Amino acid sequence: MNDEKRGDRVARRQRGIYEHPKGSGIWWVCFFDEHGRRHRQKVGPKGQALKVYQKRKTEIAEHRFFPERRPEPRVHEAIESYMATRERARSVNDMKRCGRMWREFLGEDTRVGAVSPDDIRRYIRQRQAMNVRDSSINRELAFLRAVFNELIEDEKWDGRNPVLSKFSKSEKKNRRTRYLLGEEEKRLMEALPTFRDRAIVGLAINVGFRRSNVFELTWDKIDFEAGLAWATDTKSGDDYCVPLSAEALAILRGLPRTSRWVFPSETGESPLESCNWYQRVFKPACERAAVRNLRFHDLRHTFASRLAMTGAQQKVIQTLLGHKTSAMTDRYTHLSSQSLRAAVDRMGTATATATDVEQVSAEETQIADSSEATRRSRTGDLLITKGRRRLPAGSGGCPFLGRFGGYAFRSPISRHRQAPAW
Predict the structure, then answer these.
(1) What is the pLDDT confidence band of residue 310, given thresholds at 50, 70 and 90?
(2) Which of 11, 51, 121, 153 is 20 to 30 A from 174, alpha carbon to alpha carbon?
(3) Are residues 229 and 276 in the same domain?
(4) For residue 208, which of 286, 110, 291, 312 has the smallest C-alpha distance?
(5) Helix, strand, coil % (nearest 5) of the chain?
(6) Is the pLDDT of residue 94 over 80?
(7) Are residues 271 and 307 in the same domain?
């Protein structure tokens, strides 16, 4: 029965035609010419699409297929069309940067059909000569590949994508282990000119938000009664909240509420522009404070690293950072050498204490065995019992708590229970 159903599905599936969108009744034909170029044509009913497909295959076989040559769009037109629907994307600034670089390299008036894989190879060599990281080159290649894919999918161009997948470079792990030390934080705070600037840095250290979440924070995302701050429109796509420490609450209460934004611009109608503030305020303050190789995202590293150094579990750090997987949290849990040494010292102290406890327990057991060996029941029979041990701390004399803790105790009530009057 299953074979018959499978055969019916194969028979109903026609090669070279497809319905798009599904259930619309509009059928398209898809075929390749003698040069290997793919062509797609919108027809209409399914039966007519089958006839058109057979006709095109016959024309190609008899070398009578001459497709209409549509004007190819230019590079800048293709990039502008791609960016028109992505103005609200989180990575829009990086997309604009990639588009600007490709327009400068390929030329504004270059037709998309004139772009070849050799041009892409030449671009990669040029970027490598500038010591650009492989991850950055991959993002630029992915942008141009997406631009060409959209042209092909929208039937604006029938060529092949010149950005081949094999061009992507194997990325090196560019993981930073930079976080702010206590003395560096003090110097940086002294170098920042205004209270608002110090509040931005202090809040980033105490809540661990990304730069966009810090600058786009609004007052309605802060719950002073519960002591929580919410991060929305995050990189992972999920909103999450972080408990506010006493220092973070003091910072927020010291800020004036002149706008819906916690850090508003001069007009108050938009948040403070983060890139401008980073170049104009943060970097000069780092230079004055002699804090080297520090980026704003390293403040988020500082938040996670200090959590790890205080003994927070990895799952807790993952939740406070808003990460979906623990793999992303591993890079933030690097500890300082002082914390590692303190952990080793604590392990040595615990080992010595455990050895002393074992010796004391052995002595108590021997004493208990010698006293218990001569105990007898009310009938005069010898009692065969294990050595009694002291109830663990916190059990309150309860025999059940002691039993679940790994010990079997004799109930103190049973020894002193009197016989009933009857």
Answers:
(1) confident
(2) 121
(3) yes
(4) 312
(5) 50, 10, 40
(6) yes
(7) yes
Residues 330, 244 share a domain: yes
Q: Please tell me the pTM assigned to this model.
A: 0.53
The DSSP secondary structure of 119-171, one letter per residue, reads HHHHHHHHHHHTT--HHHHHHHHHHHHHHHHHHHHTTS--S--SS-GGGPPPP
* Dihedral pair phi/psi, residue 379, rounded to 5°: -85, -5
Looking at the structure, tell me whether residues 187 and 309 fall in a common domain: yes
Residues 147 and 21 in one domain: no
3-state SS, one letter per residue, for 285-314 = HHHHCCCCCCCCCHHHHHHHHHHHHCCCCH
10 Å CB burial of residue 94 (0-12, 13-18, 19+) is: middle
Domain of 142, CATH number, reads 1.10.150
CATH classification at residue 202:
1.10.443.10
HEC secondary structure over 360-409:
HHHHHHHHHHHHHCCCECCCCCECCCCCCCCCCCCCCCCHHHHHHCCCCC
The reported pLDDT for the residue numbered 373 is 47
The whole domain housing 38 covers 14-61
Confidence of residue 11 (pLDDT cuts 50, 70, 90): very low
**Per-residue pLDDT tens digits for 286-297:** 999 999 889 998
Tell me the two tokens of residue 80: 């502008």
Same domain? 91 vs 160: yes
When the pLDDT of each residue in the chain is averaged and rounded to a whole number, the result is: 77
Q: What does the block give as tokens for 40?
A: 């797609």
Supply the DSSP string of 325-372, one letter for each residue.
STTTTGGG----HHHHHHHHHHHHHHHHHHHHHHHHHHHHHHHHHHHH
Is pLDDT above 50 for 412?
no
- In total, how many domains does the chain have? 3
